[in-house]
């Protein structure tokens, strides 16, 4: 019996269908728990899904590459979804026109604070050069961050993990810290969430307040472009 | 719907080609985003099928991060070695960037008459 189940698993684990199914089921469980918890930001569906799948891979001794055979179909959609961000950005055209210089300045400022403080702090605490390069683009959305990390000599897989963790930190602790600093302008609050914690922060901002969400999406989209251009140029300029 | 997805993929494909051709550090999908954004600006009124397709792709944006996130299992050794700088950077600099950017933007954004402010700090947590 034991061997039958093992053989069945060996057979199934080579099918892309398994990795794909596991991804959707784990995310559904995560999303269900998130809603059950009254949308508590600590119950992040992405974290729950990752933890469930990582645990499953560990106990079944399945390599990540085998899982990714199936999960790549979901992963692939990150590219088109990034392109699709043009639509929410377009909806903010009026705001963009009215406060263009301020918004551009804010995005460059936030992008620089996020990446410079990350690199300086991690460097001071003794991180390896690959880790530094993997951490630098942590505030932009995953596909872009992975592309940037690759360009400057980082490890894209580590970047993906750091980007997602950054989003979760921003989404869970960001609003708390802004309350402590007595920051009340929804536009500024959303903007900051989008710059520092990309899509996960934006999803959170939308749940709290629509204005905050719109500004978060705007900041995230512009920051994606700003960081994708500034980090590689600055990195190659500073570190040669 | 298919035409809308095709348009999004065409933008991405052009983005990848431009990025590769000119050896740009900017990833293809970001160039695709810029292309689509300018396309929308020119068309002024984007077709509903396109905005629906984009919205559908973005509803479960966070699901799309799961496969890459599971990659954490391949990075356990590196995470163990560099856990302190990674944790510090993730928490301290993310929150620093949020607070400083929010402060700057509250000062700089033009005052609005219809600014909605949080009723209580609790709502915003």
Automatic annotation (TrEMBL), chain A:
Transmembrane segments: 17-34, 46-67, 73-90, 102-125, 157-178, 214-238
Coiled coil: none
GO cellular component, one term: membrane
Cited InterPro entries: CidB/LrgB (IPR007300)
Topology versus the membrane: Multi-pass membrane protein
Cell location: Membrane
Keywords, ordered alphabetically: Membrane, Transmembrane, Transmembrane helix
UniProt cross-references to Pfam families, sorted A to Z: LrgB
Full protein name: LrgB family protein
Upper classification of the organism: Bacteria, Pseudomonadati, Pseudomonadota, Alphaproteobacteria, Rhodospirillales
From TrEMBL, chain B:
Protein name: Murein hydrolase regulator LrgA
Species in which this protein is naturally found: Thalassospira lohafexi
One CC-aspect GO term: plasma membrane
Major location category of this protein: membrane
Xref: Pfam families: LrgA (PF03788)
InterPro entries on file: LrgA/CidA
Localization per record: Cell membrane
Gene Ontology molecular function terms on file: hydrolase activity
Keyword Iron-sulfur: no
Spans traversing the lipid bilayer: 29-45, 57-77, 83-104
Membrane topology annotation: Multi-pass membrane protein
UniProt entry keywords in alphabetical sequence: Cell membrane, Hydrolase, Membrane, Transmembrane, Transmembrane helix
Origin: domain of life: Bacteria
């Amino acid at each position: 019996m034991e061997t039958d189940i093992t053989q069945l698993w060996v057979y199934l684990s080579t099918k892309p269908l398994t990795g794909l199914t596991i991804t959707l089921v784990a995310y559904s469980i995560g999303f269900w728990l998130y809603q059950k918890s009254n949308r508590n930001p600590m119950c992040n569906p992405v974290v729950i899904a990752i933890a469930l799948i990582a645990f499953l891979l560990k106990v079944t001794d399945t390599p990540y590459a085998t899982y990714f055979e199936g999960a790549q179909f979901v992963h692939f959609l990150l590219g088109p979804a990034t392109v699709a961000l043009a639509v929410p950005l377009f909806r903010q055209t009026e705001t963009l026109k009215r406060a263009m210089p301020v918004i551009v300045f804010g995005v460059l400022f936030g992008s620089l604070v996020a990446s410079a403080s990350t690199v300086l702090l991690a460097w001071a605490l003794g991180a390896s050069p690959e880790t530094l390069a993997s951490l630098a683009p942590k505030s932009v959305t995953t596909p872009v961050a992975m592309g940037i990390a690759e360009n400057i000599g980082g490890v894209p897989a580590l970047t993906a993990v750091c980007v997602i963790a950054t989003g979760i930190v921003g989404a869970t602790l960001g609003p708390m810290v802004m309350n402590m600093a007595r920051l009340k302008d929804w536009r500024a609050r959303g903007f900051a969430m989008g710059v520092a914690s990309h899509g996960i922060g934006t999803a959170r901002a939308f749940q709290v307040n629509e204005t905050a969400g719109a500004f978060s999406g705007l900041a995230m989209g512009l920051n994606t472009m700003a960081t994708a251009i500034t980090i590689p140029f600055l990195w190659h300029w500073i570190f040669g | 719907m298919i035409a809308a997805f095709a348009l999004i993929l065409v933008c991405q494909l052009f983005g990848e080609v431009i990025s590769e051709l000119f050896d740009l550090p900017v990833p293809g999908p970001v160039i695709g985003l810029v292309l689509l954004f300018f396309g929308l600006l020119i068309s002024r009124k984007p077709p509903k099928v396109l905005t629906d397709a984009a919205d559908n792709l973005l509803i479960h944006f966070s699901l799309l991060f799961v496969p890459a996130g599971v990659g954490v299992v391949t990075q356990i050794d590196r995470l163990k070695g560099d856990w302190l700088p990674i944790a510090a950077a993730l928490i301290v600099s993310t929150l620093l960037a949020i607070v400083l950017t929010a402060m700057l933007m509250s000062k700089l954004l033009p005052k609005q008459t219809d600014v909605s402010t949080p009723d209580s700090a609790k709502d915003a947590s």
